[in-house]
Amino acid sequence: MGLVKEITAQHEWETFVGSLPKSTLLVIFFHAPWAAPCAQMAKVIEALASDYAAKEDSPPTSWVSINAEELSDVSEIYDVVAVPYVVLQRNDQVLEAVSGSNASALRKAIETHAPLNSTAAATATATTTANDKSGTTGGGEEVGKNEEVLSPEEELNKRLTGLVNAAPVMLFMKGTPSEPKCGFSRQLVNILRERSVKYGFFNILADDDVRQGLKKFADWPTYPQLWVSGELVGGLDIVKEELEKDPDFFKNFSVPSQNGAAAA
């Protein structure tokens, strides 16, 4: 990603953070390769990093990209439960976090904590607007248009629509795949792993708005919930029934295993 450094190992992350001057604003971009909104957000991040690098008098910033699944220990430090997710940090203190592919909110947050002069700010606005208009992704938005005012329920439903479509297979569970917080969630994770299914997940225990809102949105009162191609399949019992009827139910969503290991 050019100016945005890809961190691929825990020790690399620790060394990098430890070497930053205390005055530097660290922009941490958590992503996942299966999430389409992350690809669009990556372009926005790169454009913003370029704007800061182009100005000699711009505040000191550093930009990193982290695969939230591969570096789960780092993700857990920042309570990352969905991607894209961007954290702003200075001197080891989290200043703000932006969840989802909201380019205008991200730009505003970064400029709040590392103000550009008016000329640079105008350039950043133009650049991110152009990137937003280059394509549409789940949860994204175009900058520069008059935004529709939505009620809290409409905002939540918009967010939930983006979440259930964030990956072809989405698991809303209690806990994370590495640390499930209920037996049903653990069993569903095992079913997906045994079949090498590439899936996204959301820890509903970390966000009560999603936890309560998705019950109404899906008309399904319990967790875990499994969604495929934006449609609710159901809970553990329903998934087992689907597999009994069709053992190849997940065939289109499986990936080849490496060295006999199932996909995480």
The biggest beta sheet, please? 5 strands, mixed
Instruction: Identify the strand order in the major beta sheet.
Output: 1-3-2-4-5
The SSE order reads EHEHEHEEHHHEEEHEHEEH
CATH class of the largest domain: Alpha Beta
Number of domains: 2
Looking at the overall shape, the CATH architecture of the largest domain is: 3-Layer(aba) Sandwich
Mean pLDDT across residues: 82
SS-based class: alpha/beta
User: Could you tell me the strand content as a percent range?
Assistant: 15-25%
CATH superfamily of the largest domain: Glutaredoxin
The proportion of residues forming helix, as a percent range, comes to 40-55%
Q: What is the CATH topology of the largest domain?
A: Glutaredoxin
Separation of the first and last Cα atoms: 25 Å
* Coarse morphology: elongated
Count of β-strands: 11
- Low-confidence segments, given as residue ranges, are 118-147, 258-264
User: How much is the radius of gyration in Å?
Assistant: 20 Å
Tally of alpha and pi helices = 9
GO molecular function: 2 iron, 2 sulfur cluster binding; disulfide oxidoreductase activity; metal ion binding
Family: Belongs to the glutaredoxin family. Monothiol subfamily.
Organism: Daldinia eschscholtzii
Region (Disordered): 119-152
Written account of the structure:
The chain has 264 residues and is an alpha/beta fold. It folds into 2 domains: 5-133, Glutaredoxin, CATH 3.40.30.10; 152-253, Glutaredoxin. The chain has 9 helices and 11 strands. A 5-stranded mixed beta sheet has the order 1-3-2-4-5. The protein has a 4-stranded mixed beta sheet with strand order 9-6-10-11. It has a two-stranded antiparallel sheet with strand order 7-8. α2 links the parallel β2 (25-31) and β3 (61-67). α2 packs antiparallel against α5 (118-133) and α4 (103-113) runs antiparallel to α5 (118-133). The longest helix has 19 residues, at 36-54. The relative contact order is 0.11. Mean pLDDT is 82; it is low at 118-147 and 258-264.
